Amino acid sequence: MILDSSKTKEAVNYCLNRWENLENFIKYPEATFSTNAAERSVKSWVMARRNFLFSGSGNGARASCFILSLIETAKQNGIAPEDYLRCLFEKAPYAETENDWEKLLPWNIEITPYKIRGEWI
Predict the structure, then answer these.
(1) Predicted confidence band at 118 (pLDDT cuts at 50, 70, 90)?
(2) Is beta strand 119-120 parallel, antiparallel or unpaired with respect to 115-116?
(3) pTM confidence score
């Protein structure tokens, strides 16, 4: 028997009232109880926030946000950001159609080797 005023009863009721949400942790094992991964993924944005004050204009701040979005999206797709940005900047001038632009998304792009002075690395 659980006393009406006990902390145990509060905890059990809390759990029962959210049972459907708790089942999601069984259905979706990639879901975590911790927000640490999400907090780490936005850390670069938080660190750059002060720099946005000195972007010079609203357009400069938007450009900074755009580049950071590209970098974080590349990371989320398992691509080294410098490789993604290099390939993107090499191929973007030749994109004309919507299909061409879709090929440049991190989950579609083909990362090519870096070329220095005529030699491939």
Answers:
(1) low
(2) antiparallel
(3) 0.54
